[in-house]
Design a protein that fits this description.
By secondary structure, this protein is α+β, with helices and mostly antiparallel strands. The chain has 18 helices and 10 strands. It has one domain: Cytochrome P450 (Cytochrome p450), CATH 1.10.630.10. The chain has a 5-stranded mixed sheet. Strands 4-10-9 form a 3-stranded antiparallel sheet. A hairpin with a 5-residue loop joins β1 and β2.
Length: about 400
């Protein structure tokens, strides 16, 4: 099996397996060791790793020389030979994350309209209502799994309501989104790839049916707005509409679920900072950004050089892939003072948890608001919150970093 498909992005010689239990538990010492050796380094699998903050920003903002389209990789013919031409593109070719300008610009401009600060601000009261209702359901129990009982249902309810998804269908979404999420990984096995494709087809069929219903019965929801844009002509194809809905569903709750889970774990492991935030809720904004920096939801993003380029003194050739390790850049001491220390009042905090450049996360404003409300609600409503498992398990994913479960008592 090709090591690029299997996940050995550094190869055995570098002694770094992104899916190893110790790496999933705490990748930051490994990031620090590698970054101390070189900010940009080529693995024995032929892939570049970018661990420093400055080169990461340089690549993320350089849309002229770096592409998000996997078809620009020099090993794409090999991937197509292994997976088949249909499978190699299925689920990717119409997803905004994997499109360069001008297609990305067009799609992003459309979706941006649903996530303006004004619209998200108007949703704050509803998000607070959902958060408090979830806490109401667990207060008598004295314990809960933060992921299952709070971190998952809060953002999935928000994005489902935005899209107009019936409540009865949301459990199906949890299963499908978990299965589809590895598509965000730049490196997956053939077995996982086909599971992703299967779940993607199920989601596509569901959305096709829902879109058909909204064409005849428009609602005040995002799906209806996207259909209207499609009907204006050559702005959004049916395939792009379907792919955009899948992306909004998965990215709209998976990342925020991880933000809440990872963030609360960090706070409970740093009780002085948790007490500081609890005593001063005005710190919710800076605290949320610090938790995004300290142990963010998204740990990497991939780019392919579309021409030869020099980065941090290294020559990256056309067609070679660079994996920007956002989690490593966010702990770079050249950018952040005492980067391994959690500081809920850290300001300024120019972290890369939402990426940078043209692919800066379109849902960043919504994620920040959800995070602020989540941490404030959890700390204020559940005094005495404590960990039941001090080393909770992480999900075996490369791009998204998140917990399988987070049992707590209060």
């Amino acid at each position: 099996m090709d090591p690029v498909l299997d996940g050995g992005i550094l190869g055995e010689a570098a002694l770094f397996d992104p899916l190893a239990p110790q790496t999933l538990s705490d990748p930051y010492p490994i990031y620090a060791r590698l970054r101390a050796e070189a900010e940009v380094q080529k693995t024995d699998a032929g892939i570049w790793l970018v661990l420093g903050y400055d080169p990461a920003v340089q690549i993320l903002r350089d849309h002229d020389r770096f592409s998000v389209d996997h078809r620009n990789r020099h090993d794409t013919p090999e991937l197509i030979e292994k997976l088949g031409p249909t499978a190699a593109d299925r689920g990717m070719e119409n997803i905004m994350l994997f499109k360069d300008p001008p297609d990305h610009t067009r799609l992003r401009g459309l979706v941006n309209k649903a996530f303006t600060p004004r619209i998200v601000g108007a949703m704050r009261a509803r998000i607070e209502e959902i958060a408090n209702a979830l806490i109401d359901e667990v207060t008598e129990r004295g314990e809960m799994d933060v992921i299952e009982d709070f971190a998952y249902p809060l953002p999935v309810t928000v994005i489902a309501e935005m899209l107009g998804i019936p409540e009865a269908d949301r459990n199906d979404f949890k299963r499908w989104s978990r299965q589809v999420a590895p598509i965000l990984d730049p490196i997956i096995s053939e077995e996982v790839f086909f599971k992703v494709a299967e779940a993607g087809l199920a989601l596509a069929a569901y959305f096709d049916e829902l879109v058909a219903k909204r064409r005849t019965d428009p609602r005040e929801d995002l799906i209806t707005e996207l259909i209207r844009a499609e009907d204006e002509g050559d702005r959004l194809t049916l395939e792009e509409l379907r792919a955009t809905l899948i992306l909004l569903l998965v990215a709209g709750h998976e990342t925020t679920m991880n933000l809440i889970g990872n963030g609360l774990l960090a706070l409970l492991r740093n009780p002085v900072e948790a007490d500081r935030l609890s005593a001063d809720p005005s710190l919710a904004k800076t605290a949320t950004d610090e938790l995004l920096r300290y142990d963010g939801s998204v740990h990497l993003t991939a780019r392919t050089a579309i021409q030869d380029v020099e980065i941090a003194g290294e020559h990256i050739s056309k067609g070679e892939m660079a994996i920007v390790l956002l989690g490593a850049a966010n702990r770079d001491p050249a950018q952040f003072v005492d980067p391994d220390r959690l500081d809920v009042g850290r300001d300024p905090n120019r972290h890369l948890a939402f990426s940078a450049g043209g692919h800066f996360c379109v849902g960043a404003t919504l994620a920040r608001v959800e995070g602020q409300i989540a941490f404030e609600t959890l700390l204020q409503r559940l005094p005495g919150l404590k960990l039941v498992d001090h080393d909770p398990p992480y999900r075996a994913t490369i791009t998204l970093r998140g917990l399988e479960a987070l049992p707590v008592a209060f």
